Amino acid sequence: MTHTPEYVPPAVWTFDKENGGAFASVNRPTAGPRFERALERGEHPLQLYSLGTANGIKITMMLEELLALGISDAEYDAWLIDINEGDQFGSGFTALNPNSKVPALIDYSIDPPVRIFESGAILLYLAEKFGRFLPTDSARRMECLSWVFWLVGSAPYYGGGFGHFYYWAPVKLEYPIDRYTMEVKRQLDVLERQLTDRTYILGDDYTIADMSIFPWYGGLVLNWGKDVSEFLSLHEYPHVRLWAERIAARPAVQRGRRVNRIFNFPGGIRERHHSADLDS
To answer: Of the candidates 118, 114, 117, which has an alpha carbon nearest to the alpha carbon of residue 155?
Structure first.
């Protein structure tokens, strides 16, 4: 391994807004609103504020799966929060999610309305509200939730770790790329072993565990983002790929993947307010 000149941390860290890299213009070491903007509200009880990122896709997948089962109460409005433009720092959104991350959801079918942020919490809320995609048996339920929380703890190593230093960092540094590559491959190996003799994460049942993990690691092996198949030797995880292909073929997943998409994505729509928005 080659070494760059050693960085000596100062006695007190200070924020340098010119540090470069992706999102340098919006990242700051402070929370809270930066401007006044109320959240828009549509006609459905479920109001989603999101973007078609891996975390956003989890929720639109779930909602479209519920609608595919004929659960009309899962109809929803999906409003775009463009994180590249700093929409997440508007006063309305920070009141909904003090952490200023997408997605966030309000359920107006309950008085007072229920406000939820963090994608894992939203999946759990919807699963419990509609009684779908979460086992009721205690042991199976906890197995499912263990995998949901596994993703919550693991995905930052892929996105904020490997993804940042491999794709977005203003300079390429060997040590952090090696460190996070090793961890992402270890996580893929965890999934490969789990899926060796299973259709889905829990076995035959498709659950919020799959919905939580798929947009991150399914998208990775399917090359939904940057193609790192050679760098990460993704051929070493055939069962993860089969699982990902199986989920990607679901019509509800294909619909959910199109919602709040502002990137170069065929069929993507900025906002979704009726099922017909996805039918054209």
So the answer is: 118
Q: Would you place residue 1 in the very low, low, confident or very high pLDDT band (cuts 50, 70, 90)?
A: low
Is there a contact between 37 and 92 (Cβ–Cβ < 8 Å)? yes
Question: Which residues are CB-contacts of 75 (< 8 A; sequence separation ≥ 6)?
Answer: 44, 46, 67, 274, 275
CATH number at residue 267: 3.40.30.10
Q: Which residues contact 10 (CB under 8 A, 6 or more apart)?
A: none
Of the candidates 128, 129, 133, 127, the one whose C-alpha atom is nearest the C-alpha of residue 205 is: 133
CA distances to 49, 87, 211 from 76, rounded to whole Å, are 10, 20, 18
Query: Per the structure block, which two tokens stand in for 53?
Result: 């990122």
pLDDT in tens, 138-190: 999 999 999 999 999 999 999 999 999 999 999 999 999 999 999 999 999 99
Residues 156 and 223 in one domain: yes
Examine residue 151 and state whether it is found in any structural domain, yes or no: yes
Residue 42 tokens, joined? 């549509």
**Residue 95 structural domain:** 46-133+258-278
**Domain contains 191:** yes
What is the band of 19 on the pLDDT scale with cuts at 50, 70, 90?
A: low
